[in-house]
Amino acid sequence: MKEHKPEVLELKSAYPATPKKLFEPLIVCFACNYCTYAGADYAGTARIQYPPNVIVIRHMCSGRYDPLEFLEALRLGADFVWHAGCHPGDCHFLTGNYKASRRFALLKKLCEQLGFNPERLILEWVSAAEGDRFASIVRKLLQKYEEIGPSPMKNFKEEL
Ligand code: FES
């Protein structure tokens, strides 16, 4: 069986390269093609204002998210990793989001064991019609950033 490799290179190229930008809050949103990605797109076309601190990584379905990609995002200094997708019952592949949310619960426990604040991993569903919800979650995460501060991986990178 062929081993699946996460799109690490794509993820790396999406990250800020200059040390100055390391302390900008960074949210990495994993979005499914049919709902959350379309919701983010809708926020843009409807000109709903939200901070530009979010990188959206699209997959066809949240059931296709690879937990290693989430870990890689944290390793590269993401302050928040946002697991998004269609609302329960709305997945275009029927059960992808149910499977993904079960994996997410395990991943959250693993990240806690690795020393990350579990609040850095969030699960929020966004439908294609919820551009305003997408924007409000980004704003909410930036408020949370004020409370919990930058990712410990940013300090680590600075020391290198
Ligand atoms: S297609 Fe959106 S979660 Fe499956």
Describe the model.
This is F420-non-reducing hydrogenase iron-sulfur subunit D domain-containing protein. Keywords: Iron, Iron-sulfur, Metal-binding, Oxidoreductase. GO terms for molecular function: iron-sulfur cluster binding; metal ion binding; oxidoreductase activity. With about 160 residues, the protein is of the alpha/beta class. The chain has one domain (about 25-150): Lumazine/riboflavin synthase (Rossmann fold), CATH 3.40.50. It contains 6 helices and 4 strands, in the order αβαβαβαβαα. It has helices at about 10-15, 35-45, 65-75, 95-115, 130-150, 150-160, and strands at about 25-30, 55-60, 80-85, 120-125. It has a 4-stranded parallel sheet with strand order 2-1-3-4, with helices on both faces. Helix 4 (about 95-115) links the parallel strand 3 and strand 4 (about 120-125). The chain is globular, with a radius of gyration of 15 Å. It starts with 7 loop residues before the first helix and ends with a helix. The mean pLDDT is about 90. FE2/S2 (inorganic) cluster (FES) binds next to helix 4.
Question: What key attributes describe this structure?
Answer:
alpha/beta; 160 residues; 4 strands; globular; binds FE2/S2 (inorganic) cluster; 6 helices; four-stranded parallel β-sheet; 12% strand; Rossmann fold
The major beta sheet can be summarized as:
4 strands, parallel
Please tell me how large the radius of gyration is: 15 Å
Q: What is the strand arrangement across the widest sheet? A: 2-1-3-4
Q: How many distinct helices?
A: 6
Helix content: 40-55%
Tell me the CATH architecture: 3-Layer(aba) Sandwich
Order of secondary-structure elements: HEHEHEHEHH
- The CATH class is identified as Alpha Beta
- Tally of separate domains: 1
**Rounded mean pLDDT score:** 88
Ligand species: FE2/S2 (inorganic) cluster
Helix/strand structural class: alpha/beta
Q: Report the uncertain regions.
A: none
CATH topology: Rossmann fold
- Beta-strand fraction estimate: 5-15%
| Gross morphology | globular
Number of strands: 4
